[in-house]
Write a structure and sequence with these properties.
The complex is a heterodimer of chains A (559) and B (232). Chain A has 559 residues and is α+β, with helices and mostly antiparallel strands. Chain A is built from 17 helices and 16 strands. Chain A has two domains: 114 residues, NADH:ubiquinone oxidoreductase Nqo5 subunit (Beta Polymerase, domain 2, 2-Layer Sandwich); 331 residues, Cytochrome-c3 Hydrogenase, chain B. A five-stranded mixed β-sheet of chain A has the order 1-2-5-4-3, covered by helices on one side. Chain A has a three-stranded antiparallel β-sheet with strand order 9-10-11. Chain A has a three-stranded antiparallel β-sheet with strand order 14-15-16. The two termini of chain A are 33 Å apart. Chain B is α/β, with parallel strands linked by helices and 232 residues long. Chain B has a domain of 137 residues: Rossmann fold, CATH 3.40.50. In chain B, helix 4 crosses helix 7. Chain B is extended. About 5% of the residues of chain B have low confidence. Classes of the chains: A alpha+beta (559), B alpha/beta (232). Chains A and B meet through strand 8, helix 4 and helix 7 of A and helix 4, helix 5 and strand 6 of B.
Chain lengths: 559, 232
């Protein structure tokens, strides 16, 4: 683990040992703070709905909260509430929630989009699903559901059985009545997707081209919005929720996602996880990261070279190897459902020695294989010509859009939850956070390739630990009551480093065995917002490359 | 050994190999393994339909179409280890206008339903549909979602269902093989599709009065009902 450089000066509201001093922050905000709530992860400051911009601006400028990690919207019986989860890129353990209640009759709140660019989409989602309106929002319209949708599905009085009635003209062929383009106008509007090989799923990009240059791109989401939050809200904590995270980021990143839920729910219900189980979690999560990054690299090459070439086939072949290891461990190739709240489902497969040998073999194979990938990709002149200095994402823009994961690290932002807010067994192991200052498509692909090497290092160390673990101390689960009912009105927001970046879960308990509100902060959703910055002014193929380098997965973008 | 004899030897050797391969027969031209297989007549007699079905089943162009989780397993099915191409069905085409088969790999939601129908409509006849995964059968784990279409058959007809969440590549290969068998045997799936409801009068019976009223309706004001809550 690389050491962090000590920072020269402290922000307002920060104690010398890196904790948040909430009293000092409350003093800084003065009269803005109406009330203070305590959530499991951080304190929440309650403010008036027309003070949002002022408060967030002070916190960003003076207190150093430069990462708007998530915006959670929810409806209570007497009010609506938007929660802005703030963090710092320098130290993500310093958190603060800004709670903005609004009246039930008139749910209008000020938009934070002028302070944090990332708030734009988060607030559109809150409007779409919960029904809070944001004043001065640059573009408040539905984001996940069709424009014709009636009602807000996560609000309390929504009736799901009511059919959606849509006039046929809403689905008329858009090309049928196209107006003649005047001669002097030389731009062209073009739809890319939702069925298109380069969009990595069902993404729809509304683009305006001037010649071959992109002058405007507007991602249209929601073609895979399969109500993940609703599904989790109607499932019980103990067993029913765990299968769903596998299906958010479905590129074999299942265990990383399961861990996000496990971490949030375990800190909400105060459950301990045995150390042995933490090591198994760490090992299997890194296997998932390798599988996920391999597909990212393979499909990126597919986008750049344009056909099913060797790199794609190599990546899939190597994924088969790591999927075999995961299948031996979990019994599944893709949807593992392996983690449990309090540990893991079962111990390593028998005979253990054989499994360790297989994993070790894979870990020595990975660095050799990476040389081959570097030869084919990063050392390849054709590849370099296509991706170096295209899709530029400057670090300050990346921060404003809440980018995390390899996208942020490819812009030189040294930010990794595994190191900065450690969980599992990561802080006991030797590994490095990979960053690259290039800020371009090349850097993002390069960071992913090198992260595969680090993941293999982590797995190797985990295998050593597991092999030497005394037989009578192999505790895979701690004891938990049969029905899990966290205290009413306890709230938690926890993040982990998933394959695409910071995956966060917000849970509010209401005293029952099901969550009252379950909100997913998806890394791909935030990263995708920055496409506009990267693509505008570039050529069309560079936009495709930029999209590939973001490595979005639509299951996670749309949830 | 002189040059001439050397040449002669090689020629003789070559001829003897050919003889050995042909065996005794009337004429070298038709005396082959194929000839043996077809008996005395060197001609294959078949119906053109049957021939076309055989060809269709053995050369399927699949649409490059990804929706959700199942598309990852679908990619694995195309790629190195499982290699669907071995079965004469592995050429993914990016354009629906060049494809015969569409594998629907994932959950269909209300926003994507009409788009998928358009893609399906763009494929040339005859076309075949393989639905992959539980979501395309019933909505799968997301069946109770407010936005989820309960199975792909709400929108397009399906020939083969491959259950699983997601199905393993082997299962998809089996499904595609079954489809090939079906096509080669000239069978077509019973069409159980319930297309988008174009409900002019809800559940009213179409008697004369209703028919007359129907003619007065402005086509633009027809409505679609996304009523997946009540669909089976």
């Amino acid at each position: 683990m690389s050491l962090e450089q000590p920072r020269p000066e402290l922000d307002v509201g920060e104690t010398p040992d890196g904790e948040v001093d909430y009293d000092e922050l409350a003093e800084l905000l003065g009269e803005y703070v109406l009330d203070r709530e305590s959530h499991v992860n951080a304190e929440g400051f309650v403010i008036r709905p027309d003070d949002v911009v002022a408060v967030l601006d002070i916190l960003k400028r003076d207190a150093g909260f430069d990462n708007l990690s998530c915006v959670t919207a929810q409806e209570y019986y007497d009010r609506y509430e938007s929660i802005y989860h703030l963090k710092k890129y320098d130290d993500p353990t310093q958190e603060l929630s800004v709670v903005v209640p609004t009246l039930r009759d008139e749910p209008v709140s000020q938009s934070a989009a002028s302070v944090f660019d990332t708030a734009n989409w988060h607030e559109r989602e809150a409007y779409d699903l919960v029904g809070i309106e944001y004043e001065d929002h640059p573009d408040l319209r539905r984001i996940l559901l069709p424009d014709t949708w009636q009602g807000h599905p996560l609000s309390l009085d929504y009736n799901q059985d009511q059919p959606q009635i849509v006039a046929l003209r809403e689905h008329a062929d858009p090309m049928e009545h196209r107006s003649e383009v005047p001669d002097e106008q030389d731009t062209m509007f073009i739809n890319i997707g939702p069925h298109h090989p380069a969009t990595h799923g069902v993404l729809h990009l509304r683009t305006v081209l001037d010649g071959e240059q992109v002058i405007d791109v507007d991602p249209d989401l929601g073609y895979l919005h399969r109500c993940e939050e609703q599904m989790c809200q109607q499932s019980t904590y103990r067993h029913q929720i765990m299968p769903y995270p596998d299906r958010w980021d479905y590129i074999s990143a299942g265990i990383l996602n399961e861990w996000a839920y496990a971490r949030a729910a375990e800190s909400l219900a105060d459950i301990d996880v045995p150390e042995y189980a933490q090591i198994i979690r760490t090992m299997s999560a890194e296997m998932c990261r390798i599988a996920s990054h391999l597909l990212a690299v393979g499909t990126f090459a597919l986008d750049i070279y344009g056909d099913f070439t060797a790199i794609f086939m190599y990546a899939i072949t190597d994924r088969e190897k790591v999927e075999n290891l995961l299948e031996d461990l979990t019994g599944q190739r893709l949807m593992f459902n392996y983690l449990r709240l309090r540990g893991v489902a079962w111990d390593l497969p028998e005979p253990r020695e054989e499994y360790f040998e297989k994993v070790r073999e894979f870990c020595t194979y990975v660095p050799e294989r990476l040389e081959e990938y570097h030869n084919l990709l990063s050392a390849n002149e054709l590849f370099q010509m296509r991706v170096i200095d295209t899709g530029i994402l400057p670090p300050e823009v990346a921060k404003a859009y809440g980018c995390t994961g390899p996208v942020a690290r490819g812009s030189g932002i040294d930010y990794d939850i595994r190191r900065d807010d450690p969980y599992g067994y990561y802080d006991e192991l030797e590994w490095d956070v990979i960053t690259d200052d290039g800020c371009d498509n090349f850097s993002r692909a390069f960071v992913r390739l090198e992260e595969i090497r680090q993941s293999a290092r982590i797995i190797e160390q985990c295998v050593d630990l597991l092999e030497e673990w005394p037989e009578d101390e192999r505790e895979i689960q701690s004891n938990v009551p049969r029905t899990l009912k966290p205290d009413a009105d306890s709230e938690v927001y926890r993040t982990v480093e998933a394959a695409k970046g910071e995956l966060g879960i917000y849970i509010r308990a209401d005293g029952t065995d099901k969550p009252a509100r379950f909100k997913i902060r998806s890394p791909a959703f935030c990263n995708l917002q920055s496409l506009e910055v990267m693509a505008e002014g570039e050529y069309v193929p560079d936009m495709v490359a930029a999209l590939g380098s973001l490595d979005i997965v639509l299951g996670e973008v749309d949830r | 050994m002189s040059k001439e004899t050397q040449l002669h030897d090689t020629l003789e050797q070559a001829q003897s190999t050919q003889d050995a391969r042909m065996g005794p027969g009337v004429d070298d031209r038709f005396n082959s393994k194929l000839r043996q297989a077809f008996g005395a007549s060197p001609f294959i007699l078949t119906k053109f339909d049957a021939f076309m079905n055989w060809v269709r089943g053995n050369s399927m162009f699949i649409l490059l179409f990804g929706i959700a989780c199942c598309s990852i397993e679908m990619m694995h099915t195309y790629a190195a280890k499982h290699d669907l191409d071995r079965f004469g069905a592995g050429v993914p085409r990016a354009s629906p206008r060049q494809a015969d088969v569409i594998i629907v790999p994932g959950t269909i939601v209300s926003k994507f339903g009409p788009r998928m129908q358009r893609v399906y409509d763009q494929m040339p006849e005859p076309k075949f549909v393989v639905s992959m995964g539980s979501c395309t059968i019933s909505g799968g784990p997301f069946q109770e979602g407010y936005n989820v279409v309960k199975g792909v058959e709400e929108i397009i007809p399906v020939d083969i269902h491959v259950p699983g969440c997601p199905p393993r590549p082997e299962a998809l290969v089996y499904g595609v093989l079954k489809l090939q068998e079906q096509i080669q045997a000239g069978e077509s799936a019973p069409v159980t599709v319930k297309p988008y409801e174009l409900e002019q009068f809800g559940d009213l019976e179409r008697d004369e009065l209703v028919q007359e009223l129907a003619s007065e309706i402005d086509e633009d004001d027809l409505v679609m009902r996304y009523n997946w809550a009540e669909s089976p």
